[in-house]
Write a structure and sequence with these properties.
about 40% helix; globular; binds 1,3-dihydroxyacetonephosphate
Length: about 260
């Protein structure tokens, strides 16, 4: 029998938190999480801004907290004349093993394309990192009935370039752009339909049963259970509600493998 997919709750802090705010958050979250056995918890990922990555990573190790520390983006190349960019080697240097790639804000404001997201995904895998690859349609695309076609293109662009053995190693986040930061969560059944569609497309390139697929877009404690109980949603990528330990822990509790 296939092993069940362990849920993931990832907090994407975006461009928020100084190092001091970041360490206060980690300490507060650790206070709450400590009372739980690891088997009761989803995998917990925090994605601080670059400036806080090193501090948070060291703090998590010192506390012995079961938190994965991830970067929010990275450059695909190892080094070179790319002012301001951060490479996979530099993240590895800090002990960072996970990275969010192709977030819609990167696509929208920093010109990331399916091509660059694919290059970054390949770079992450080359360096033994776990990429969380983000896909999702914009409001107009949904209104024009293009959701499935947009998702298909974004998934095929990446998966067609990967080795079959890489498919279980990647994490995919379905984040409908219209649901991000708007308070308009995608209805659970519809989010699940799209996540199942994603699994179907991944499956055309190799085994997709172990690939974890997250939903993101206005995830809060009170809608987590409905989303997580769906067959093809394996966790959440959380923005606003991941900034406070209280609200993030509320989501973690509703996503625990035992209550799911
Ligand atoms: P919100 O949870 O604030 O809608 O953000 C979602 C997101 O973009 C996570 O990457």
């Amino acid at each position: 029998m296939a092993t069940p997919r362990r849920p993931i709750i990832a907090g994407n802090w975006k461009m928020f938190k100084t190092t001091q705010e970041a360490t206060a958050f980690v300490e507060a979250l650790w206070q709450k999480v400590q009372s739980r056995a690891t088997a009761e918890l989803p995998e917990i990922v925090v994605c601080p801004p670059f400036t806080a990555l090193s501090t948070v990573k060291q703090q998590v190790e010192k506390l012995g907290a079961p938190f994965i520390v991830a970067a929010q983006t990275m450059e695909s190349r190892d080094n070179g004349a790319y002012t301001g960019e951060i490479s996979p080697l530099m993240l590895a240097d800090l002990g960072i093993r996970w990275v969010v790639l192709g977030h819609s804000e990167r696509r929208q404001y920093f010109n990331e394309t399916d091509e660059t997201v694919t290059a970054k995904t390949l770079a992450a895998l080359k360096h033994g990192m776990t990429p969380i690859v983000c896909v999702g349609e914009e409001l107009q695309e949904r209104e024009n009935g293009l959701t499935d076609a947009v998702i298909e293109q974004q998934i095929r662009a990446v998966c067609s370039q990967l080795q079959t053995s890489d498919l279980p190693k990647i994490v995919i986040a379905y984040e409908p752009v219209w649901a991000i930061g708007t308070g308009k969560v995608c209805e659970a059944a519809e989010a699940n339909r799209v996540c199942a569609l994603i699994r179907h497309f991944v499956g055309e390139y190799g085994p997709a049963e172990q690939t974890r697929i997250l939903y993101g877009g206005s995830v809060k404690a009170d809608n987590t259970q409905a989303l997580m109980s769906q067959s093809d949603i394996d966790g959440g990528l959380v923005g606003g509600a991941s900034l406070e330990a209280e609200s993030f822990f509320g989501i973690i509790q509703h996503a625990s493998p035992v209550t799911a």
